[in-house]
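job 3f2a | input accepted
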Amino acid sequence: MKERVKNRPLNKRKLLRKTAVTAAMALIFGLIACVTFLVLKPVVEGWLYPQEEIELIEIPQDTEEMLPEDMLVHEETVLDQTEEVINTLRNEIQLDTAAYQELYDSLYSLTQEIESSMVTVTSVNQEVDWLNDPYETKGQTTGFLLADNNRELTILVMAETLSQSEELRVTFINGDQVQATIKGTDKETGLAILAVNKEDLAVATLEKITFISLGRTLGISLMGSPVIAIGRPLGNKTSVVFGMVTSEGTILSLTDANYELLTTDIYGSTEATGLLVDMNGQVIGIINQDFNDKTSANLVSAIGITELKAVLQRMANGLENSYLGIKGTDVPAEITTSLQVPQGAYVTGILMDSPAMAAGIQSGDVIVQLEDKEIRSFKEYTEAIRQTQPGEIVELVVMRQGQQAYRQVGLEVTMGTME
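job 3f2a | predicted structure (419 res):
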């Protein structure tokens, strides 16, 4: 008798079921492993490679104006110093070519200190030509190192060259190049703040760089002061030009804020950018040619640094500037006395489709209170606005002229952001 072992017939349905169960279990295991990895990765990295906490960048604000008696003393001191300098020039200094060379050598050494805070910002875009071949387009501008929050370096730059850029590259003074991201922009002043990760920079680069020092324009007279225009005052290449402040006190009435415009005798490009720096190496203005008169389009002008400090601080910390949408001015004391106009922020104009228009604010209104803050000037109004957040609902009190006198009107406004 012969026995023959016969294989059990293959149960395809059972095999398929086991295969499906195994695949499902593998998929579930993989998903759990991925989620666990994503959750634990930052925790473990935090243990192994602890990072410095980000510090809020604080830029000291210029809040105290000179008293009249202090201003008089200041002017008398300037006159005395000027007379002393003239006498010294007459009696002691021979203005030969060597003296001029020494003077310009001294100015150039000051610019070298500033140049260590300068970077080149390159915006890169990928394009396709008519043959469908890809190529890169690049635009360049000069940026200035503003502050360090322990994790990032923040860079001040004009926003115009950054529009619609796909990639931003920052080149430091020693040639080290890293990628940057946009931290914030302000469309009214045309400024932007970029950020670069400190971990991407070489130690040698961090040791070589410096940060710009911000001066002040509030409460002091700059007329006739020598200044340095540095960055790109002559257009598309890094350049340095010396000159002097020829006028001050011109007020730029922009949205929700007024700024001071400084003009110089420096002949530059109509597209000039950069900084205006005093003889102490401190920034007193950010060059902006957009507000020049047609008759002096090439004379380098700058927005005074005092009014810009709050804007720069918010952008450097990644905060959006709130937007209400009015233009205005102060109410002079003589107008308050003679015409009985309330003291506050006088509204001279309302922007179309702005939060101010939606809330019912009108030209001729005088804003006297925002939340619990009393408003006695347009500057105080600007400072109060910058303490709010976009989307926040705030209460305003305005004085509105009626048939007999001004009457008080309470309004609710939802703060916005400028598009």
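job 3f2a | The CA atoms of residues 22 and 151 lie 46 Å apart.
job 3f2a | closed
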